Write a sequence for this structure.
């Protein structure tokens, strides 16, 4: 019985210790996207994308044919190397991929995109400018980065005035209101600050007036008592 129990324990341990195919990359930190209108060029929509984890760039590099396929191990783990982000970012295939997976339309018209050469792709991400036919107030941004590698990838997106959206393989498109953003917020903050300062000043003035009135009454009572 003891030998049988030991054998059963050994089999159970071997099964539970066996490596499980890792699909943790899409379920790690999400991608992030920032959407805004260029302050100097009102006809340009700027989209900044940043990857969730640097090993996702290794997966992308393998998909684009920039890295050997054996960099993705049989158990699903990725053999990430520090040179991978630079290699992917320097390739001509990367901006083509970005412009294929991120598109912008305004007023029903497509906007022409261009990707700035990334300097630190893993840390700072990549920025794409989309020039539209005219000044943009509302733009439709379609974002499908990495969902061709795994449909579980998602991206947390932010826009002017606190707008937010989650992109995934189902929700690929979103309309962003790009006017009345940071400038309007600064204006509102300035007005709010002015109102608060005025209220404080009025309150302080009221205290001074009340103090003067009480002081005069006190002086009058002293004179009468004398």
């Amino acid at each position: 019985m003891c030998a049988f129990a030991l054998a059963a324990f050994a089999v159970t341990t071997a099964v539970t210790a066996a490596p499980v195919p890792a699909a943790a990359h899409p379920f790690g930190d999400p991608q992030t996207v920032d959407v805004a209108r260029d302050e100097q060029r009102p006809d340009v929509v700027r989209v900044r994308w940043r990857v969730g984890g640097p090993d996702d760039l290794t997966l992308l590099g393998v998909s684009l044919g920039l890295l050997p396929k054996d960099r993705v191990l049989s158990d699903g783990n990725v053999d990430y190397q520090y040179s991978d982000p630079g290699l992917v970012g320097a390739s001509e295939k990367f901006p083509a991929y970005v412009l294929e997976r991120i598109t912008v339309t305004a007023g029903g018209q497509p906007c022409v995109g261009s990707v700035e050469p990334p300097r630190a792709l893993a840390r700072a991400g990549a920025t794409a400018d989309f020039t539209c036919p005219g000044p943009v107030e509302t733009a439709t941004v379609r974002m499908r980065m990495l969902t061709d590698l795994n449909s579980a990838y998602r991206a947390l997106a932010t826009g002017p005035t606190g707008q937010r959206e989650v992109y995934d393989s189902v929700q690929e498109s979103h309309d962003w209101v790009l006017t009345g953003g940071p400038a309007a917020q600064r204006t509102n903050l300035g007005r709010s600050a002015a109102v608060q300062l005025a209220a404080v000043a009025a309150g302080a003035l009221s205290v001074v007036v009340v103090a003067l009135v009480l002081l005069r009454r006190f002086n009058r009572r002293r004179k009468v008592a004398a």
The beta strands are 31-37, 44-50, 102-106, 109-110, 112-115, 126-131, 138-143, 155-158, 164-167, 173-177. Residues 1-24, 181-203 have pLDDT under 50 and may be disordered.
